[in-house]
Specification:
Structural class: mainly alpha
Number of domains: 1
Largest sheet: none
Number of strands: 0
Shape: elongated
Number of helices: 4
Distance between the termini: 26 Å
Order of helices and strands: HHHH
Radius of gyration: 18 Å
Low-confidence stretches: none
Helix content: over 70%
Length: 75
């Protein structure tokens, strides 16, 4: 699956979520430090989304390939 497709899906997913209040410890940091932490968290979240989505697709393909054996997921 192409990176551009995953970026689009991640953007769609991220855009539909609510906002979360920052923990008190982070609110005490400077604006620059908060931006750095947010950037780091967004990067980690994007990587996790990428891995999770690719794993789900692989799992779906694996289940779908069992169709010949026992009807697969399209029964």
């Amino acid at each position: 699956m192409g990176t551009d497709v995953l970026q689009f899906l991640y953007s769609l997913w991220a855009g539909n979520r609510g906002t979360v209040e920052l923990p008190e410890a982070i609110e005490k940091l400077t604006v620059e430090e908060q931006q750095e932490i947010r950037g780091h968290c967004q990067n980690i979240e994007c990587q996790a989304f990428d891995v999770g989505f690719k794993t789900a697709v692989q799992f779906w393909n694996q289940l779908d390939s069992t169709e010949e054996i026992c009807g697969g997921i399209t029964r």
